[in-house]
Amino acid sequence: MSIFISNRAKKNTQGYWFGLFVPILVGVGCSFLSMMLVNSDVPVSEFDYIDYVFLTFFMAGHLVVWPLVAWLLTRSNPSERFSRRKGAYMSLKLYVFWIAFILFNSILGALGGE
Q1: Per-position pLDDT tens, the chain of length 114
Q2: pTM of the entire predicted model
Q3: Does residue 5 belong to any structural domain of this protein?
Q4: Where are the alpha helices (DSSP H) in 1-114?
C-alpha cells in the first residue's frame, strides 16, 4: 500500500471541497461584509438608503447567494466536474439544514415569548 495519493484522487478531493465551501464562503462572506459595513461607526444613527441596501445584502447573503452559487456549480459539465457537483449538492443539503435550524429556533423563540 502506497503512502502517496494519486493525482486523480487529489484532484477529486480538491474539486469536492471547492464545490462545498465556495458557495458557503461567498454567501456567508457577503452577509458578514454587509454586517460590518452597516455596523461601522457613523455620526448619524438613522438609516440611509445605502444602509437599507447593505441590510438587504446581509439577509440575502446566506438566504439567496449561497444556494444560487451552489446551484450554478451543480450545472457544470457532469463528466469533467463530478466531484465539484457532489460538493455543491452537499452544500445545498447543508443549506437546507441551516434554514431548518433558523426556522426551528425562530419557532421556539416565538413559543417561548421572546
Answers
A1: 567 778 888 888 888 888 899 999 999 999 898 888 887 766 666 667 777 888 888 888 888 999 999 998 888 777 767 888 889 999 999 999 999 999 999 999 999 876
A2: 0.79
A3: no
A4: 7-38, 49-60, 66-74, 82-112
Residue 104 CA to chain centroid, in angstroms?
19
Rg of the Cα trace of the chain?
Answer: 19
- Look up residue 106 and give its three cell numbers: 425562530
Per DSSP, 61 falls in state: I
Q: In this structure, what is the dihedral angle of CA atoms 34, 39, 40, 46, given to the nearest 10 degrees?
A: 110
Residues 78, 85: contact at Cβ < 8 Å? Answer: yes
65 lies in some domain: yes
Q: Is residue 4 part of a domain?
A: no
